[in-house]
Design goal:
heterodimer, A: about 350 residues, alpha/beta, Rossmann fold, 2 domains, six-stranded mixed β-sheet, five-stranded mixed β-sheet, B: about 70 residues, flat
């Protein structure tokens, strides 16, 4: 018999709306609110044994206390499956449901939630199994009919299929597996479908990049300060900050002061995404300090910032790229830089 | 910002507005197979081209070509 624990907010518990959003976490035996529908769907295969109710504001404003309460509830009830929500388009509720799923995962308890694809809760715990729902409770019955079978599958430790097949939102996970046709055949079939305006499903969805408005041109380089940035992982020899060869999440800055060129005695390239021996033997091939100093000496550029910035542009998540870019941009801006040369390897 | 890249289509697809064609991924700013002086001259041309790109007005991701 499947023991289900259900998490809901104050509204779905029938306690109240915003005026009750500070409700402290409290457990109830058996199903409450939408849990009753869940209970009926389980038939004789299981039961909603307990419901945890918490106010949406409480969960978000007193997050540590809420997390402790969720964990204590799960440890007490020891459910086989946790169902959270669904939260639909309610942002704070979505965040709470995602956090409940995270806590369940930490205790190795199967968990499923449901929310609208634009609910900010999706950003909280990317690994959560989230069934997409409409933006209101009108979609409750349909959502539960997808959430429960998925949860039952997870709880029974049966391998779960891809997002599109099982009806959850993509979790950014790719699993190796055998396909009927080789990659070349699938790619050609996709290309033919595209060329003939037929629908097709990509196997590698590409994250969308945002359009960035171009900066105005620099009027007079002779009075401009230029900074140099590279994704080529050029670092002082010995790699003092342990910049990673791939999948880096950080950036680093190092001084160029007093140097006319980058020598291989002092610098090396630790990028793991290309053959980096040549760049380590002559780091100017990636970070062209020698000619920048020439141009500075000749007065063609006003000044070269004495600090350069680097990260490893190799299998870096888009979210880290964005943050690193913003942080480096803030650093060069506060240093009074007018223009940046970015060498992308 | 001007981006020196061995793969300008990728840089432009990612939204870089001023892009200059570099040499190769392993050595974007030069060519170690050339004699040192020629390598350095090539590097200078590339950096000058990137500096020209910084002085060029663009509306969207643009490959800033070498001056002939």
């Amino acid at each position: 018999m499947l023991r289900v624990g259900h998490y809901i907010n104050q509204f779905f518990a029938g306690i109240g709306g915003e005026q009750s959003a500070n409700l402290t976490p409290q457990g109830r035996d058996g199903p409450v609110g939408p849990g009753r529908a869940l209970h009926l769907l389980l038939k004789d295969t299981g039961a909603v044994v307990s419901t945890l109710i918490c106010g949406d504001s409480f969960f978000n404003e007193r997050a540590a206390e809420a997390r402790t309460a969720v964990r204590a509830w799960m440890e007490e009830i020891r459910p086989d499956l946790v169902i959270a929500g669904p939260a639909f388009a309610a942002g704070r509720y979505g965040v709470a449901c995602a956090e409940v799923c995270r806590q369940a995962a930490e205790l190795d308890i199967a968990a499923v939630t449901g929310m609208h694809p634009e609910n900010p809760g999706l950003l909280v715990h990317k690994q959560a199994y989230v069934v997409p729902t409409g933006d209101s409770a009108a979609d409750l019955a349909r959502a539960l009919n997808v959430m429960l079978p998925l949860g039952q599958k997870l709880a029974s430790r049966v391998p779960v299929g891809p997002a599109a097949v099982e009806g959850y939102l993509p979790r950014g996970v790719r699993r190796p597996g055998a396909r009927g046709e080789i990659g070349a055949e699938r790619a050609i079939a996709m290309l033919v479908a595209k060329l003939t305006a037929q629908p097709f499903q990509t196997e590698i969805p590409v994250e969308k990049y945002e359009a960035v408005p171009p900066a105005p041109p620099i009027a007079d380089l002779r009075h401009a300060t230029i900074a140099v940035v590279t994704t080529g992982a050029v670092v002082p020899r010995g790699n003092p900050d342990h910049l990673k060869r791939c999948s880096e999440t950080r950036w680093a800055q190092y001084t160029l002061a007093g140097r006319d060129r980058l020598s291989s005695d002092e610098f090396e390239c630790v990028h793991g995404g290309f053959f980096n021996l040549m760049a380590s033997e002559n780091p100017n091939l990636v970070l062209p300090l020698d000619v920048l100093r020439d141009l500075q000496r000749e007065g063609k550029i006003g000044n070269l910032l004495d600090t350069y910035f680097t990260t490893t542009g190799n299998d870096q998540r888009l979210i880290d790229c964005k943050r690193n870019g913003a942080e480096i941009a803030a650093a060069v801006q506060s240093a009074g830089v007018d223009g940046v040369l970015l060498v992308a390897t | 910002m001007a981006v020196l890249s061995a793969l300008p289509p990728l840089a432009m697809q990612a939204g870089a507005n001023r892009v200059v064609q570099g040499v190769k991924i392993e050595h974007v700013c030069g060519d170690p197979s050339l004699p040192p002086d020629a390598d350095r001259a090539l590097r200078r041309r590339l950096v000058e081209q990137a500096l020209r790109a910084l002085q060029t007005s663009v509306e969207q991701p643009t490959l800033v070509q070498a001056e002939r």
